[in-house]
């Protein structure tokens, strides 16, 4: 450096100093603050699933114990006061991970910058209402929320539709948010998946964590097909097929399927309210699997856009077995489908195709005023 003029020496020293300062500041802010917060939207947040779900998210059940969260809560005007109450309780819970709560009835404000959107809000079927009337209310909700998400959510926002009819609401969201990749739009069938795991675990008296690879095919409705043909249980003698351990095809092909299909109705009968705790838990499982991946050799069930796998009409949102890796799901390929399963898989696909037709006829009616 002896021959370098003084001014240049000063310049080099200044640049090095500035760079060191920037690096030290970055390390310091990383150590001090850890991860950047993730913005999670919950629609219908003043409802019963919302009330069970938001504390789970704020406690790290969905995204892990070291992930700061900013919750965006959306509901409609008549529920605004209740929504404010939920926000107050979140503040009063002093969740260490919770860095902010946006509680609003403005869909645009709710969607701004969100990384994950859990769509729980919707119009429920009330006594005496026609199916078409309920579908019509929900298609208009999901059409409007699709464009709000498309324009205001963060790039690569992951969307999970919970509100019923979940598959068709997700389909409408997909059709009216064409710039959101299809891969980012899913619907919840993890609750049905968990119900199927629970039934097998109860029947065999084994911990539910040892039951793997049940499948929910199709619609989140009573036509869904809970399939145990590929399911296994981890035993002290290694992995065994569920069919072999239960050894009762009659129970598996009739009662088990009906129990899982009708579980929602059984809970309403018992609680006089629909399932909320288990639905919220399943929504957390769904997102956690999607973001962090499924363990090697296991799959989960998700309502995703069909690519024609297993002969299911492309474009329908249909529940398939999926594995997740690096934040992306893929449909498990190559499973053997017997005649019994084929029939049940087609039956639920047929219902979804009919729902799609009904949703489009509602949209047409709305367009014609
Ligand atoms: N996919 C599944 O596995 C599954 C399981 C259980 C329930 N569900 C469905 O989840 C939905 C919510 O269930 P819940 O028990 O919480 O119902 P809920 O009636 O208690 O709550 C629904 C909330 O959505 C709000 N809402 C209505 N329209 C809205 C809109 N346009 N934008 C934002 N919010 C809106 C309501 O004001 C209400 O607070 C229902 O459609 C239910 O059928 C799905």
Automatic annotation (TrEMBL):
Binding site for NAD(+): 44-50, 75, 138, 162-164
Subcellular location, principal: cytoplasm
GO MF entries: L-malate dehydrogenase (NAD+) activity
EC assignment: 1.1.1.37
Residue numbers binding substrate: 125, 131, 164, 195
Enzymatic class: oxidoreductase
Compartments, record wording: Cytoplasm
Residue stretches making up the Lactate/malate dehydrogenase N-terminal domain: 39-185
Gene3D superfamilies: Lactate dehydrogenase/glycoside hydrolase, family 4, C-terminal (3.90.110.10), NAD(P)-binding Rossmann-like Domain (3.40.50.720)
Domain Lactate/malate dehydrogenase C-terminal: 189-358
Protein keywords: Cytoplasm, Membrane, NAD, Oxidoreductase, Transmembrane, Transmembrane helix, Tricarboxylic acid cycle
Transmembrane spans: 6-28, 40-58
Catalytic activity: (S)-malate + NAD(+) = oxaloacetate + NADH + H(+)
CDD domains in alphabetical order: MDH_cytoplasmic_cytosolic
Keyword Membrane in record: yes
GO CC terms, sorted: cytoplasm
GO biological process, one term: tricarboxylic acid cycle
Any Pfam family matching the protein: Ldh_1_N
InterPro entries in the cross-refs: L-lactate/malate_DH, Lactate/malate_DH_C, Lactate/malate_DH_N, Lactate_DH/Glyco_Ohase_4_C, Malate_DH_NAD-dep_euk, Malate_DH_type2, NAD(P)-bd_dom_sf
Keyword Nucleus listed: no
Active site: 220
Entries under NCBIfam families matching the protein: MalateDH-SF1 (TIGR01759), MDH_euk_cyt (TIGR01758), PRK05442.1 (NF003916)
Family, as annotated: Belongs to the LDH/MDH superfamily. MDH type 2 family.
Protein name (Swiss-Prot/TrEMBL): malate dehydrogenase
Source species of the chain: Nepenthes gracilis (Slender pitcher plant)
Phylogenetic classification of the source organism: Eukaryota, Viridiplantae, Streptophyta, Embryophyta, Tracheophyta
């Amino acid at each position: 450096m002896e021959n370098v003029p003084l001014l240049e020496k000063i310049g080099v020293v200044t640049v090095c100093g500035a760079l060191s300062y920037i690096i030290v500041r970055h390390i310091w802010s990383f150590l001090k603050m850890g991860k950047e917060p993730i913005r999670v939207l919950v629609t219908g947040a003043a409802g019963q699933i919302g009330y069970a779900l938001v504390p789970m998210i704020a406690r790290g059940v969905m995204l892990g114990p070291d992930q700061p969260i900013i919750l965006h809560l959306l509901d409609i005007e008549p529920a605004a006061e209740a929504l404010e109450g939920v926000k107050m309780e979140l503040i009063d819970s002093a969740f260490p991970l919770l860095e902010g709560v946006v509680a609003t009835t403005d869909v645009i404000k709710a969607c701004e910058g969100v990384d994950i959107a859990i769509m729980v809000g919707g119009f429920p079927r009330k006594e005496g209402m026609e199916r078409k009337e309920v579908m019509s209310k929900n298609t208009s909700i999901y059409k409007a929320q699709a464009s709000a998400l498309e324009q205001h959510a963060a790039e690569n926002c992951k969307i999970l539709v919970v509100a019923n009819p979940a598959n068709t609401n997700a389909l409408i969201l997909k059709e009216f948010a064409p710039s959101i990749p299809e891969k980012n739009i899913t619907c919840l069938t993890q609750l049905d998946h968990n119900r199927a795991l629970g039934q097998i675990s109860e029947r065999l008296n084994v911990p539910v964590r040892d039951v793997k690879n049940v499948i929910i095919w199709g619609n989140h409705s009573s036509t869904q097909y809970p399939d145990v043909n590929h399911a296994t249980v981890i035993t002290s003698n290694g992995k065994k097929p569920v069919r072999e351990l239960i050894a009762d095809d009659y129970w598996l092909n009739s009662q088990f399927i009906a129990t899982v299909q009708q579980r929602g109705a059984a809970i309403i009968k018992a609680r006089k309210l629909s399932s909320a705790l288990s639905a919220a838990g399943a929504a957390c499982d769904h997102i956690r699997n999607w973001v962090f991946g499924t363990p090697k050799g296991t799959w989960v069930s998700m309502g995703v856009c069909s690519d024609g796998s297993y002969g299911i009409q492309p474009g329908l949102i249909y529940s398939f077995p999926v594995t997740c890796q690096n934040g992306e799901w893929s449909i498990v390929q190559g499973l053997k489908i017997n005649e019994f399963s084929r029939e049940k898989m087609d039956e639920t696909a047929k219902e979804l195709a009919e729902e799609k037709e009904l949703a489009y006829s509602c949209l047409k009616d709305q367009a014609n005023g």
